[in-house]
Amino acid sequence: MRARLAAEHDTWVSSGRAGWKDEVVRIGHMGPVPVDEVLACVEALAAVTGPSEPAPRPERFTRRVVARADELGPDWDALCSHTGATLFQHRPFLQAYEAHPVAAVTATRYVQIADDDGPAAAAPLYRQADPLGLLGLEPGQEALLSAMWHCPDTRVLTRGPAALDALLSAVAGQADELGCPLWGFVNVEADAPAVGLLVERGLHLRTLVPRWQFLTTDHPDPETYLAGLRRPVRHELRRQLRRAAERGVRTVEHGPDHPRLTELLRLVAATAGRAGSPRYYDPDRLAAMLRRVGPSCRLLEVVAEDGETLGVGVCFREHDRLQYWAAGYVRDRPDLTFSPYWVLWWAVLELLWSSGAKLAECGRLNERFKTRMGLRPKPLVALMSRP
Predict the structure, then answer these.
(1) Which of 5, 94, 213, 273 has the fewest CB neighbours in a 10 Å radius?
(2) CATH number of the domain at 218-357, out of 3.40.50.720, 3.40.630.30, 3.40.50.300, 1.25.40.10?
(3) Could you read off the pLDDT of 300-337 as tens digits, one per residue?
């Protein structure tokens, strides 16, 4: 090989160095080399080093866009399972949210990318505002986002970089059609592999507030959990639970068919309003959506001795996790000697431990309480078409 390349192309050939000695061939030439000569040298090298591999066939993708989740098939859920997506991107939740959007959504699209092997990428898209004020949108301004804001854990549904390119092209096209100059993905885990791929493709990174996780590997049972808390926190939690028990407070679990569902959810909406997001939950729409989601939805109600509702937690059960998705509670009442929020937290933990799930996803915000209670932050980002 060395003699042939030197004679025909005036080059020198040597092996690599050190650890690359047996794997790398270095080819050199003094002075500029015409492009044709470079290509001829490459062909000559290939001829003497082994048979040529067939050129990879170009990726060919088909695109499908529908406006209704009812038009999606089982292949959508198969891709969600492949990418580890939570229930918020599977068809049952998408169908429920589309039928009863909890926050204002002015258009919905579902993009699917497929190749010869089947589904390769997908994205549920929602033209919506920014109810949490995290993207810096002006009042009345909307963006085309995947997924909906109420999804705290968005997975970029793709099997590889080539499919991702096709997906981004399709999403950008839908944004143009719907009149949205801004589009992107929100609530993506900051360390997800897709983040780097999206930044490489020109999307702009924006840091969002983290979501919080409670891992049963850290806290496998009540005794271990309590022992691991800082002493002042442990004493305060026990004090809160003891005072609630002395007042005859109990916790009841309901399904979404509960006759007082809408009434319970008004407390959730009021709590979101106190936190600065008065339009984040519409109680009537939320009740209708939870009924459509079905039995994976569980509600925890903190009930006073006289029957008054003091706290409400909305959860979703998945095979390996519990989604503690929303909460509402009574506060700043001089007649209450305990916090219903602390009682509700303990009820969520009991539901988690009894379910055998590996972790509880505990939403965003309220960082001080969640830090004290031993939760771990999971940083989230948005990846947007422009800064």
Answers:
(1) 273
(2) 3.40.630.30
(3) 999 999 999 999 999 999 989 999 999 999 988 888 99
